Amino acid sequence: MAPRTTGEIARRDPPPAAATISDDELWKRALYYHRDGEFDKALQNYQALLAKDEMNARVRNHLGLLYRDKGLLDEAVREFRRAINVDPRYVQAHNNLGVVLLSQGNADAAAAQFRTALELDPRDVGAIINRSIAERTLGRRESAK
User: Fold this and answer.
1) 116: closest CA among 124, 65, 83?
2) What is the dihedral angle through the alpha carbons of 112, 113, 117, 119, rounded to the nearest 10 degrees?
3) Residues in contact with 11: Cβ distance below 8 Å, sequence separation at least 6, in sequence order
4) Structure confidence by residue, pLDDT tens digits, 65-104
5) Sorting pLDDT into bands at 50, 70 and 90, what band is 13?
6) For 18, 66, 76, 143, which has the most beta carbons within 10 A of its beta carbon?
7) Helix (H/G/I), strand (E/B), else coil: 60
8) 64, 44 contact by CB (below 8 A)
């Protein structure tokens, strides 16, 4: 079973072009283009949001997901860490960072992120499953159960 990342990416119709775009509209566009696999357009919208507020943990988390989807794992790790620096209680960012660390072969660090996510939200199903995968990868079968 492969680890799962979490986020809010949902398919939406593209919004109409507008001269002045609100943050909500930029967010919708970023999610739309991300979901459709249009990396450059999604990146532009995420960056426009960060230009307005570089301390937006949700945007940083989704930018990390975008980089992960493109196989840019070091960049993904950087963005997930930035999201966590902004909001240390952001469960999804901890989970997503763990997934990328696990895919990079760093199961110990991944397991630590999943444990942190579960300390923050003990019922987070993604973090529960992912922690089990990390523990199994580390050969800790009893802990994985």
Assistant:
1) 124
2) 20
3) 32, 35, 36
4) 999 999 999 999 999 999 999 999 999 999 999 999 999 9
5) low
6) 76
7) helix
8) no
Which pLDDT band, with edges at 50, 70 and 90, does 142 fall under?
confident
| CB-based contact 113:101 (threshold 8 Å) | yes
Asked whether the beta carbons of 45 and 55 are under 8 A apart, the reply is no
Tokens matching residue 108: 């110990």
Half-sphere exposure of 139 (CA within 13 A, CB side): 0
Dihedral sign, Cα of residue 38, residue 92, residue 100, residue 127:
negative
What is the residue type of 88? Answer: P
Place of tokens 């009893």: 142
Q: Are 7 and 92 in contact (CB under 8 A)?
A: yes
